[in-house]
Design a protein that fits this description.
- This protein is 62% helix and 8% strand.
- It is built from 13 helices and 6 strands.
- The chain has a 4-stranded mixed β-sheet.
- α6 links the parallel β1 and β2.
- The radius of gyration is 25 Å and the shape is globular.
Length: 306
């Protein structure tokens, strides 16, 4: 029998015994049992009410999304985590996106970076030492890409492996700068190439953004939160726009705004477009405003500089 049904019945039997068979001797025991029983029933009631409220809110929000293409709200952090002073200093000194945010959003960003660090396992390979800089900069990159999302943890990534430089991958018997393995829920990066991606901020080449874009893509395919729905649906719009508009597709290919690797498959197209959007938004907006608008919608990216 279901424990939710069985437990109240057992308690009720004991209450009947205490109240009608031996009321004086076991008064305090009976009172305790009654409190437990009503507490248990109240919890069930709260869970039932919560489900109803969430269902109603979900329906309302879905209607809102159909009209606006964005969630009703993004940030809800009643218990904010704080970075260590050393970690906060790394953000301020090395992460441009963070420094452009308002004070309130900086607090949310720091909380999300701290939460990301807590939820992920960082592993160094070939004697690579995991420092605070490593954890903060990788986590900040992931946080930046999902800062327009309500659900920002990227569940498709459980561990992050870092090599000092490019490494030999047994996945396809070749040397890699980085990769995302969806089966193992693992992101792999080479640290020298990671840093190179941030050295020049507008060259549309950023290893971490590229590989994390893959992770977010796969995560969105398997999650059903509101931002994942928006992400996947908007990417379908983007693919249809490019494939059905020969003039736009031709202009995109001939402009060399996207490197040729983008046209390998849909996954690389998405990763390269996001990489380019983050690093050179003004160039994308001026050359391909329709694509820019959809990428901004896909990431819900309404921040300074975008």
């Amino acid at each position: 029998m279901n424990i939710i049904i069985k437990f109240p019945l057992i308690v009720a039997q004991n209450v009947m015994y205490v109240l009608f068979i031996n009321p004086k001797q076991d008064f305090f025991i009976g009172a305790s049992i009654l409190i437990i029983l009503f507490g248990f029933l109240f919890i069930i009631f709260l869970i039932w009410v919560r489900q109803i409220v969430l269902s109603i809110f979900g329906g309302i929000e879905m209607g809102f999304v159909l009209i606006t293409k964005r969630p009703v709200f993004i940030y809800f952090h009643p218990f904010l985590k704080k970075l260590k002073p050393e970690q906060e200093s790394i953000l301020k000194k090395q992460f441009t996106f963070y420094n452009r945010l308002s004070h309130r959003r900086k607090v949310y960003f720091s909380h999300r970076v701290a939460s990301f660090i807590k939820h992920k396992e960082f592993i160094g390979q070939e004697n690579f030492v995991i420092t605070e800089e490593v954890k903060v900069l990788i986590s900040a990159t992931a946080t930046m890409l999902t800062f327009g999302f309500r659900d920002y943890i990227i569940k498709s990534v459980q561990r992050i492996i870092i090599f000092p430089t490019q490494y030999y991958s047994t996945t396809n018997d070749n040397y890699h700068k980085g990769e995302f393995n969806v089966t193992l829920k693992t992101l792999v990066l080479s640290w020298d190439n990671f840093l190179e991606g941030f050295r020049i901020e507008d060259d549309k080449l950023n290893l971490a953004i590229h590989e994390l874009a893959h992770a977010i893509h796969f995560n969105s395919l398997y999650q059903n939160d509101i931002n994942s729905v928006i992400f996947v649906d908007t990417f379908h719009e983007l693919k249809d726009l490019i494939s059905n508009n020969e003039s736009l597709k031709s202009s995109l290919v001939n402009s060399e705004y996207l490197r040729n690797y983008a046209f390998t498959n849909d996954f690389e197209l998405l990763a390269v477009i996001i990489e380019s959007f983050i690093e050179s938004p003004e160039e994308l907006r001026s050359q391909f405003p329709e694509i820019y608008k959809l990428v901004k919608q896909m990431l819900n990216f309404n921040f300074k500089g975008y």
